[in-house]
User: What shape does this take?
Amino acid sequence: MQAQVVALRDVTPTVREFELRPDAGGLAAAPYEPGAHLQVQVMTAQGRLQTRSYSLVGEGDGQCWRIAVKRLDDGRGGSLAMWRLAVGDRLQVSAPQNHFPLDLSAPGYLLVAGGIGITPLVLMAQRLGAHARRSGVPVKMLYGARHAGEFGYLDHLREALGDGVAAHEGSAPIDFAAAIAALPPGGQLYTCGPVPMLEAVKRAWHAAGRPLADLRFETFGSSGRLATQSFEVRIPRHDLAITVPADCTLLEALDAAGVQTLWDCKRGECGLCAMDVLAVDGEIDHRDVFLSDHEKQSTTRICACVSRAVGTLTLDSAYRADS
Ligand code: FES
Assistant: This one.
């Protein structure tokens, strides 16, 4: 559906909030639950129409949806396209969708956010704060950002959870193990942030012997180690050589070249798009949370939906079941 930008607000110097009012024949904005996101179509500077997912931030008012976008100067161009929008501009959006739902039946909660990963957790904190006041269930939150000026929505979080929110500024590692140890048995952890932070949370959760089902996470596909740039791909099976432009994913480039691929989440979580890597002349920038550390180091597979490279990759397109 079409939506109009009705307000803009800079939450931090690099995070801008967009208030979008959907046309939908005059209907109010559909309600949504914590963890929901919108799909938004953006036109990159190269003139390519692309789809991005942005979490809905905070409680809705029944009229508008709010999303927040971090400006990434070395990203794939989606955030810069969003930042070029002005009040009154129109864009194509989906209805709210949710792959990161909040389960209110747990005996305790830990929320962990890193940077712009705070966006889906704002409404979770608000709902859990209200839930905690009714039921007494403990709720804690860890929120990390590189600089003090990058803590968006901290006032909302403190209003919801009081001193249950701990803000961590800088690059010093956060003690996830201690926070997980304080969570009651059966407690759940919800996290969203850059891949290295998610990997650290996963390791601490695993080391604590907690059930994997109680760790819920969402990724965003822009948090690589290396700046986003074009790279080359060869696929001997199809006698094919293509360039993956900076504003395209590997999956999109393969699709455009007519190579059949498997995919589902397109967020680096399910592993369905993983392809065999035959050779690397350069470096792979793994941006998924599906492959193990060992698989990433051995550079034998790559998740085509989010991961990228610098240089040239030689891949095999055929799907192989895990042995
Ligand atoms: S489609 Fe799910 S990890 Fe790529």
The chain is about 20% helix and 35% strand. Residues 231-315 form a domain with the Ubiquitin-like (UB roll) fold (CATH 3.10.20.30). The two ends are 43 Å apart (CA to CA).
